[in-house]
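chain below, 188 aa
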Amino acid sequence: MARLLFCFLLFTDAFSACSFSKSSPSGNTGNSAPNNNQPATAKSTTTPAATAPVQSDGLQPGQASGSYTAKGQKVELKYAYAGRAVRFGAESLVVLLTETPIPPDAVAEEIKSTPLLEGEKLRGLEYVIDENSMWVRFHPGQYQESTSNKLKDYKVESDVVRGFDDNDGSLTDGKYSRSVKFVATIGK
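prediction:
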């Protein structure tokens, strides 16, 4: 019985030592007086969070990550744009993911009718999302897919749309595949 009590006391003593050796946000380790030169919170005013909120997926509005392959050509995507436009006879949410930025004065027209993407002046993916389905077109290549599935992790909150999409290209023998994440502010 004494041996069991000794093991229990040794365990609780070790547990207490571990819990007190961890640093608190103020820099106090529990074994010394508080350091009054340290801020009470871990927030830093010099981080990107001070200018724009960082999203849980690491992307900020206007950013995309990932790539697509069209006819053996891999394209890295970095920019995300969104807006409302008429597609297929109905107003839908349009999301454009591009390799290079769309000039600011051309974004509204690009959302409306994609002249730069269709003219192959930009490379990217065009998504059209409505209540019942999702459609995606590859630029260049013009390959299109339509599905009743939505994007993964798809959310629209306070004029910001985010999502994740991947497709291994099995329907096209690997000619067209994609794996992308994005966060975009919906333009007015």
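Confidence is low (pLDDT under 50) at residues 1-56. The longest strand covers residues 176-187.
thats it, cya
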